[in-house]
């Protein structure tokens, strides 16, 4: 009898401890990149200021660390015959990293890359968002 009572109490305690909590709200930060713009032309080796809007960044996420990555857009046909877009991100060589998202800007040195008119900058914090396409030229 005592054993059954203890077992019942233990079962009740364990089931209470594992009761799921209500749904958690996820905060996704995707600030709009304001520079570079679509008409911008950057030169290899120059220093550029990448900027983004900070108005809609929630206070609890303003100190998130960010990373800026250069990429370029290309179209390809996937396995089902659909045309898709690849961002071709250079994740192995970020343009900038460990800056605070809430600052709204970061200075970058334009790497030695081929001339293209379809480059993008992607800002990663807790989510990634891309700039408009812009051009990088060689000196």
Structure explained in plain terms:
The strands form three sheets. Strands 2, 4, 7, 9, 10 and 11 form a six-stranded mixed β-sheet that branches. The chain has one helix spanning 2-17, and strands at 33-35, 41-43, 47-52, 65-72, 74-77, 83-86, 96-100, 105-109, 116-124, 128-130, 134-137. Helix content is 12%, strand content 39%. It has 139 residues and is mainly beta. The protein is globular. The chain is built from one helix and eleven strands. The termini are far apart. The protein has one domain (29-137): Sandwich (Immunoglobulin-like), CATH 2.60.40. A hairpin with a 5-residue loop joins β5 and β6 (83-86).
Helix and strand arrangement:
Layout: H1 2-17, E1 33-35, E2 41-43, E3 47-52, E4 65-72, E5 74-77, E6 83-86, E7 96-100, E8 105-109, E9 116-124, E10 128-130, E11 134-137
Parallel strand pairs: 2-11
Antiparallel strand pairs: 1-3, 3-8, 4-7, 4-9, 5-6, 9-10, 9-11
